[in-house]
């Protein structure tokens, strides 16, 4: 047993929590802990006025719904305040070849007679669009449709929306595995942080704006306090490190090592622009777009009054000036006056995210490039897990172990999923993309790739621990990127395909009907804003 594991003279049950950092991670953590434990805990959040937040992170996973539900917030409570829009999918452009696109939608894949639709599609492709043939959402995205009607009702997409306000129980990500809510959100990170600041401070969170200049440790190596420049010492029982890539408490003060993923995911930099958008004139896609580039990819996130965009690239292949030039050229004249935000990314995770009485959440815990918008999902998952494994007076070390395992599984699983995008991309028009096809991937993924050549991914062959990405997501990327040959199950040649063909027909008919009935995103949000 190490000194860390000694419970004998450990602190009492934590009820006094200090959060360092006021970015998305800090405020999501403060709001969620207050929603979970109310006045049975006290929270102080300290953030620097000088150290800026990362300023990006505006696209989410559909699971984020459970975060707002847990806070007992309805869409109309927070979406207008955050200039939020709907996101039905990630749209990948030019990953296979120039001009090609496909979607990774928030929609589970159906099965017929025990075989996923992918299998049936491979046996007898209805068109060259796997995504459109197997998912309704791909057609809605191509037609820029909203997932809600003008009266606010949700499309019928195998998810029953329950009113939650005031009910005693609240949903969490892990409870809802397998029940896919049909969309996620885009929002302005700055406005979300502002909104959550008010939510949390209204519920008693003490907000200190100051620089943390020192982290005090006791004789056991537990954090006893943080010292600020102007507000003196902030003592606490449990400290949450939300200081971003700096990892001020966990990595710097406690010395927890950082495990880099750079060998498998080489993109280590980004340059971002906030570009004005006139939503009365320009169509708003109901998806995040990831457009492949010479040394990475560009994200495009449509918000109510602007577009968030940025080039994620590897410095080994591209200089920052070149990345900014490419991004500005991609966006066009509307970006001419906009200042660029250059960011160096730390890709990987802390070996343990919770050490002694310090838990890192957000970029200080871990980060992978934002190709599948997983950063905010990591925060949401982490804070849910913190509530689940919240320590008692004995600070049972098993709770930390379980928490750390859960967080590591999620990050490592997403890493595998992202590696598949690059290994799978068919384009090989320059050294960056040729290297992507041969770059090391985690050993377990290499084995899985071998199996997927014979049998498309299913629950048996994807990363086995919870990481937010079901098998259908892997099918989308494998078939969409197109560089890894896949084939249908031989058994299907002997099977009766009538039920599968009927399923494909139903998807097509439903997609056509919905495209006709639903308003565009622009129309939906114009109506929503007019009614405010
Ligand atoms: P930060 O925003 O860096 O906040 C750090 C905080 O710590 C600040 O408040 C700062 O003032 C404070 N601080 C630091 N030092 C001190 C000190 N000494 N004293 C007091 N306070 C201090 N995620 C998604 O889900 N979707 C996306 O589309 C997405 N896109 C991204 C694109 C890029 C290029 C990058 C890099 C990340 C992206 N992410 C995305 C991740 C997302 O941005 C982050 O997960 C999220 O913003 C959380 O950041 P944070 O709060 O951990 O850190």
TrEMBL record:
This is Tryptophan 7-halogenase. It comes from Dactylosporangium darangshiense. SUPFAM superfamilies: FAD/NAD(P)-binding domain. Belongs to the flavin-dependent halogenase family. Bacterial tryptophan halogenase subfamily. PANTHER family: FAD-BINDING PROTEIN, FLAVIN-DEPENDENT TRYPTOPHAN HALOGENASE. Coiled coil: none annotated.
């Amino acid at each position: 047993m190490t000194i860390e594991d000694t419970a004998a003279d450990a602190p009492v049950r934590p009820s006094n929590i200090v959060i360092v950092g006021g970015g998305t991670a800090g405020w999501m953590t403060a709001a969620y802990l207050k929603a979970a434990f109310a006045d049975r805990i006290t929270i102080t959040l300290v953030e620097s006025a000088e150290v800026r937040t990362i300023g990006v992170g505006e696209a989410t996973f559909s699971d984020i719904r459970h975060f707002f539900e847990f806070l007992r917030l309805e869409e109309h409570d927070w979406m207008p305040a955050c200039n939020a829009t709907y996101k039905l999918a990630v749209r990948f452009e030019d990953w296979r070849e120039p001009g090609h696109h496909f979607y990774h939608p928030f929609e589970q894949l159906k099965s017929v007679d025990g075989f996923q639709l992918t299998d049936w599609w491979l046996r007898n492709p209805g068109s060259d669009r796997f995504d459109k043939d197997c998912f309704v959402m791909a057609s809605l995205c191509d037609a820029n449709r909203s997932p809600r009607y003008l009266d606010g009702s949700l499309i019928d997409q195998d998810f029953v929306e329950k009113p939650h306000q005031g009910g005693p129980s609240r949903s969490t990500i892990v409870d809802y595995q397998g029940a896919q809510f049909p969309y996620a959100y885009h929002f302005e990170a700055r406005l979300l942080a502002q909104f959550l600041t008010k939510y949390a401070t209204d519920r008693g969170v003490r907000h200190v704006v100051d620089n943390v200049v020192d982290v005090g440790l006791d004789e056991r190596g537990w954090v006893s306090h943080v010292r600020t420049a102007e507000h003196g010492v902030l003592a606490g029982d449990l400290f949450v490190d939300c200081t971003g890539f700096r990892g001020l408490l966990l990595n710097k003060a406690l010395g927890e090592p950082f495990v880099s993923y750079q060998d498998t995911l080489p993109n280590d930099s980004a340059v971002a622009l906030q570009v004005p958008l006139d939503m009365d004139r320009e169509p708003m896609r109901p998806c995040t777009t990831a457009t492949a580039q010479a040394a990475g990819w560009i994200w495009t996130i449509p918000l109510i009054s602007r577009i968030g965009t940025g080039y994620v690239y590897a410095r080994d292949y591209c200089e920052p000036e070149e990345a900014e030039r490419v991004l500005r050229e991609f966006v066009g004249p509307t970006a001419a006056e906009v200042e660029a935000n250059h960011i160096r990314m730390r890709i990987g995770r802390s070996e343990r995210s919770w050490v002694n009485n310090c838990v890192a959440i957000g970029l200080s815990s871990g980060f992978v490039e934002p190709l599948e918008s997983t950063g905010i999902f990591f925060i949401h998952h982490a804070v849910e897990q913190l509530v689940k494994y919240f320590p008692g007076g004995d600070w049972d070390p098993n709770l930390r172990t379980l928490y750390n395992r859960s967080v590591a599984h999620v990050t490592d699983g997403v890493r595998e999923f992202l590696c598949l995008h690059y290994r799978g991309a068919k384009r090989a028009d320059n050294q960056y993309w040729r290297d992507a096809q041969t770059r090391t991937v985690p050993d377990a993924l290499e084995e899985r790739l071998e199996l997927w050549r014979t049998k498309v991914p299913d629950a048996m062959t994807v990363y086995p621990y919870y990481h937010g990405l079901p098998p259908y997501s892997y099918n989308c990327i494998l078939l969409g990127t197109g560089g890894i040959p896949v084939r249908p199950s031989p058994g299907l040649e002997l099977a009766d395909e009538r039920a599968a063909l009927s399923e494909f027909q139903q998807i097509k008919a439903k997609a056509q009907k919905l495209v006709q009935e639903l308003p565009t995103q622009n129309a939906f949000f114009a109506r929503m804003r007019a009614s405010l």
